Each structure stands twice: as C-alpha cells, then as structure tokens.
Amino acid sequence: MPRYMDSRLQMYGRPHTTRIPYNILFRNLNLICIHCIFRWIILIQKVTVLFHRNVYGNPQPLINIEKKEMPLKNLNVNKCPSRVFYSVEQLENNLINVNDLTNLSNGNCPFVLKLSVLKKSSINTYSSCRILNINMMDSTGVVRVSAFNLLSDTINEILEENKMYYIADTILKHNQFGCELKLQSHSVIIECIDQVEPKMQCITTSNFNTLLENSPNTFCDLIGVCIEVGDMEVCSNTNARTEIAKREIVLIDTSMATITLKVWGEQVNKFNEKFDDPPIVMVKKVVLKQFNGTKYFSMVKFSVLFINPSVPEAHQLKEWYKELVLMEDF
C-alpha cells in the first residue's frame, strides 16, 4: 500500500476522501477495511474481476432472481402464529360456503369462508365474559361469527359492516338457531380485494297462514309487506341488567293474513326512515311465540333483518301489493 494511504488511514480526526490506486485495490482491500475502524466510507467506482477461481454458494445474475412471494395480510395480528396464505387462488381452493357448514361436525373448521359483514353488534358482557356477535353472509346463507374477551376488541376494530373478508381456522358450533363460528387467536382474517356484494339469497318459507299453524317456539324465515310501524319502546333486560329497545311492526303477505313482528335492539332504528312505499321486510331465523292465546313472531340474537331485499320474492310482493292498493282505491 502507498505510504500516503497508510498515513491517512491511521488518522482519527475528520474523515477524508481518498482515491485508492486501481491496480492495488484487490491486494489491499482487506487491510484497508481493518484500519477503517468504522470511520471511513470506501466508494468503489469501478472494479474488474481479474481471477475467477472459487465459487461460493449459487450466485445468479440479478435479472434471473425471482421476486419472493409475499403472504397476504392477515388482519388478526397477535402473538399466536397463524396459517399463511400467499394468493387469492390458494384461498379460493380451500373455500366452502355457509350452506356447507350444516354437513360438518362441531369442532375445528380449517376451511375458508368468503363472508360479508351484515351487522356487527356492540360488545356485551355476560358473567364477566365479553362477547362480540357479528352476522355475516354469503350467497347461500347467514352465519353468526363471535369473538370473546380480549379478542372481541381486536375483531371489533378489524371487521367493518358492508365489507367482505376471507375467514379461516375457526371453531364450528351447531345450535338451535343454526351455525356459529367462534374466532380464535390464530384465526385468519383477510380482507377481500374484490369487494363484490354477495348475491342475496332466496328464502324458503310459507305464507303467513301456514306459519301461524306451527307450534310456539318454532323457528322460520318470513317475508311480507310492512303496513304498520309501532312506536319504539324501552324494555328491561333482566338477564343482562340493561335496557333494550323494542318496536312492533305489522306485515301482510299474499295469503291476506297479517302478523306482528317484534324487533329488538339496534334493528328498531331501521324503521325510523320514511319510506315512499310500504317496504318489504325479510327476516331469517325468527321464532313463533304465543301470549294469552295470541301468536306473534319475534327476532332473536341470531335473526337477520333485510328491508327491500333484492330477491324475486320481494319483487313479487311489491307488485302484488301495488295491485291490491289499486283494487281497494277502485
């Protein structure tokens, strides 16, 4: 190494810029790095490989290196490791629908569901257990998704109403209301890039005259024209020691029978709006009740209410009621 280089490299003052003679670069590079003591920055402007003897590893030209595939973002981030998905195709290959859940047994559900958030309830506390209930759906049905305790806060911040998500690795539980999916710390939640609203499912139901013949505590789906909306009331919930809003509405269908439907909680606010025409109301999972010999229908926590849904039955009811009004006016 030239003497002037050695003298400058041993200095500990202000950094200097030094040009290294090109013909000694390889012979002195290691020595230069040792004397740097992390105080010097060496800029190599040009280099030529003089010898090519030993090869370590598997070097490849930069243009041939494939970009590393990045995993899809799991919104349920916590200390518990979760399954990793690298593409939408991988999610779609493991996809099942809500209707398929009826054929599965209780327990771990490793499959992926593509669900849209219909309604997210407030976090409730029961016997020191905090629970978040969410009604979600695809084109085949509605399912209740729940999260407990600390996870309920996390999920409450993640999931937004009217957005669609891929959900995997949950716990499936069957009950009298249908299917319920319990989220875990390791559950996967990935937001859908293509936010396409799922096609509204058709319902299988009978007319009101037939439904009223069922025994009390029978669950069913119903659809009808809302011809009367009652005032909102506040009732005491003895189990949760809270107050809950209630509203009674009256529906009619093509059988010309009218029924009373009790709507609870935040759902009562859906009828604050002033409709130009009587709205079509469709509810999944209502229960038939009887009090003092009078039968009525009531929503429960698993019920899902739709106003003016885009299903054939709703369009047919709307046309039928228009004709009915015209006949009465005539």
UniProtKB/TrEMBL annotation:
Q: Which UniProt keywords apply?
A: DNA-binding, Membrane, Transmembrane, Transmembrane helix
Q: Which InterPro entries match?
A: NA-bd_OB-fold (IPR012340), REPA_OB_2 (IPR031657)
One matching Pfam family: REPA_OB_2
Q: This protein's superkingdom?
A: Eukaryota
Locate the transmembrane regions by residue number.
20-42
Return the Gene3D superfamilies for the record: Nucleic acid-binding proteins (2.40.50.140)
Any one GO molecular-function label of the UniProt entry: DNA binding
Q: What is this protein identified as?
A: Replication protein A OB domain-containing protein
Q: Where is the Replication protein A OB domain?
A: 212-308
